[in-house]
Design brief:
The complex is a heterodimer of chains A (128) and B (141). Helix content of chain A is 58%, strand content 0%. Chain A has 128 residues and is an all-alpha fold. Chain A has two domains: 46 residues, no CATH class; 79 residues. Chain A starts with 50 loop residues before the first helix and ends with a helix. With 141 residues, chain B is an all-alpha fold. The radius of gyration of chain B is 17 Å and the shape is globular. Classes of the chains: A mainly alpha (128), B mainly alpha (141). At the A-B interface, helix 1, helix 2 and helix 3 of A face helix 2, helix 5 and helix 6 of B.
Chain lengths: 128, 141
């Protein structure tokens, strides 16, 4: 069977995922795992933390708006850790929103600086 | 989003990514002048954590790891993880589940955030050895 959280292949008799430690027993969703202290969300829920996009947005688009995206991505995992699914979903939405804000701002600033760059080249040509 | 539009989205992103990689392999961002300058660098004169990453990727695409590392070590370190993450997101869109991912704890993500910010600050310091982190500084004799 496949793990519902990470997609790793596990033996059909497995009780926890070999890859991520998720509880694979159907009735046992949400039960804290003693080994890690992680409360696993009920089977079938996937809450994206958008961490990959948050990092890309921070490094490539707009640092100031990318930071909240990473912070919210961290909150998603922090809340999943304590079993707060509603909170995790909310943080997930915020992370996504800040990724888009960062992307939009980065695009706008790039466009403006490209215009300034062009204007400087054209202005330079004008003087000659 | 329906499954079909998901597929189109992933295919479009993939084609765009491959096209960008080809352009980036052929043209050196350091000299070509077709790539926009980093807005942070252009407006403030400071290096951002991502400065040098296009040049680093250009060199990586040409197989020169040493020069890529000199342009932006953070990019070289993060790139495999980001590629894996993007592949996982793409597979998630296509078939409903991504690649195996270890559960990243809140602290690790916060630490990563701090590393990115500190890298951005430190590479602007005019002190040796921090100045080696500025794009290309390690290549200077």
């Amino acid at each position: 069977m496949f793990c519902t959280q990470c997609g790793a292949t596990n033996a059909d008799s497995a009780t926890i995922c070999v890859q991520c430690g998720r509880n694979l027993q159907p009735g046992a969703a949400g039960v804290p795992l003693q080994a890690t202290g992680v409360v696993m969300p009920p089977a079938g829920t996937t809450i994206q933390n958008y961490l990959v996009f948050a990092i890309l947005a921070t490094v490539f688009c707009c640092l100031p708006a990318g930071i909240p995206a990473i912070v919210y991505a961290a909150q998603v995992n922090g809340k999943l850790q304590t079993g707060d699914l509603a909170g995790a979903q909310k943080a997930s939405n915020n992370a996504k929103m800040w990724c888009w804000i960062s992307f939009g701002l980065g695009l706008a600033v790039t466009a403006v600086s490209a215009l300034l760059f062009m204007a400087r080249i054209l202005g330079g040509l004008h003087h000659y | 989003m329906s499954e079909k539009s998901n597929r189109w989205f992933v295919v479009t992103a993939l084609v765009a990514g491959v096209a960008a990689a080809i352009v980036l392999r052929v043209f050196d961002p350091a000299t070509a002048g077709i790539f926009p300058p980093c807005p942070v660098r252009y407006l403030t004169g400071w290096f951002c954590p991502g400065c040098g990453s296009l040049r680093a990727m250009h060199r990586l695409l040409q197989g020169n790891l040493r020069e890529a590392w000199a342009m932006n070590p953070l990019t070289v370190i993060l790139l495999p993880f980001l590629t894996y993450g993007l592949a996982s997101h793409a597979l998630y869109e296509l078939r409903g589940r991504g690649l195996p991912q270890p559960f990243l704890r809140k602290r690790w993500i916060e630490a990563l955030c701090l590393v990115i910010i500190l890298f951005g600050i430190v590479r602007n310091l005019p002190l040796h050895p921090f100045d080696l982190l500025a794009p290309g500084a390690m290549l200077r004799p």
